[in-house]
Model the fold of this input.
Amino acid sequence: MADMTSTADAPRSPGRPRSIRADEAIIEATLDLLAEGSTIEALSIEAIAARAGVGKATIYRRWAGKDALLLDALRRLKGVMAQPAGHSVRDDLVLLVGAIGKNVDPRAAKIMPCLAPAVNRSADQFQLYQNIISPRRQLMREVLRRGIDEGVLRADIDVEVTMALLTGPMLIQRVLQWNPDLDEQSLPERVVDAVLVGIQAR
Amino acid sequence: MADMTSTADAPRSPGRPRSIRADEAIIEATLDLLAEGSTIEALSIEAIAARAGVGKATIYRRWAGKDALLLDALRRLKGVMAQPAGHSVRDDLVLLVGAIGKNVDPRAAKIMPCLAPAVNRSADQFQLYQNIISPRRQLMREVLRRGIDEGVLRADIDVEVTMALLTGPMLIQRVLQWNPDLDEQSLPERVVDAVLVGIQAR
DNA sequence: GCGTTACGAGTCTGACCCGTATCGTATTGC
DNA sequence: GCAATACGATACGGGTCAGACTCGTAACGC
Done:
């Protein structure tokens, strides 16, 4: 919570302490409104305050503005990541690919597309985005490396490109509905298998 | 130009005809503002009018509102598609994959991310999006089918999944900068080759 | 109890915008 | 020349919002 007054090094509190429930309500209201279809810039502090049952001043007391609030709110979406079982490389990849865009918080799926424009306009928001996805990338990277070590995957593959290969199709389908004819349910499995064996005739 | 008064079946024009230069200026101003970083909903008719050197009334005389104007403006971005040479399946795929998100109009690349949120909120905008990309998908589909016919690609591959496999990585990288460490320049080639041969040890 | 700080609710100013209307002017057909 | 329609510019009423501010009240340490 970079933009909030730290409570850890508080030199004692002279007056009434800030309400934790208000913190919670504001963040939740923000995520709710986003998930309901509001876009980032259509989102107003007034609407958030009303939804949270909170005065506008209470929000401004905690955050410098909408951007700072959004930054904190979106951090909340970093749910628990899927944990690969570690038995079969293929199954682990299917699990990870299937988890793409399918967050713990059901609101995340609806909020994600809204972030696309923001990601490349502000360095802060780009960093936030990277912070969220890079541990997930790392997870997949480890599975691929394990596959190489075990001899299941070729040793000469480009791990980074392979991750993009596995992630890209799932992401464009979940976020953009890139091809309405594609069955999303079976996609993870089909993507992984296709990437594994390739499409070239032998 | 569904929302504009048709000029083809005009039953003669009683008064001063509408300025074609104004049409052009309005559309161009819209695209310019979007490319400069304005998001779709931050874009205002007033800003467009000012940028185009045009009165607001001139815009409202032609379009019903911002949505109708945007619809026409975005149609303008449908540039000429890349045309595969037809010699080597691999080279054709590299060409098509490299063309993803790299439109004729340099503004298109900056505008594309802005569309992501809109695409799944309005059926009209979703349709517009599909209208733009489906011919490109068709182009790739034909190359893949040709590869199968020629025996270069296996006959049992799922063409639709393969297209997602080729398109996804490029799209998330160009639109989202999914992995900042990936070299975008060489990505098309590396994606195509990886998809061709697969990653599994043999 | 007292000072301090937070609270929800509300007010206020100044932006910005939409969509319409109205200027005086320009350009067309007849 | 004249009616018709276009033009750019500007003004309008109505709306939303940001932020700072003000209430009376509530919760804390001392």
Notes: Residues 13-19, 22, 49, 53-58, 61 of chain A lie near DNA strand C (CB under 10 Å from a C1'). The two ends of chain A are 54 Å apart (CA to CA). Residues 100 and 171 of chain A are 7 Å apart (CA to CA).
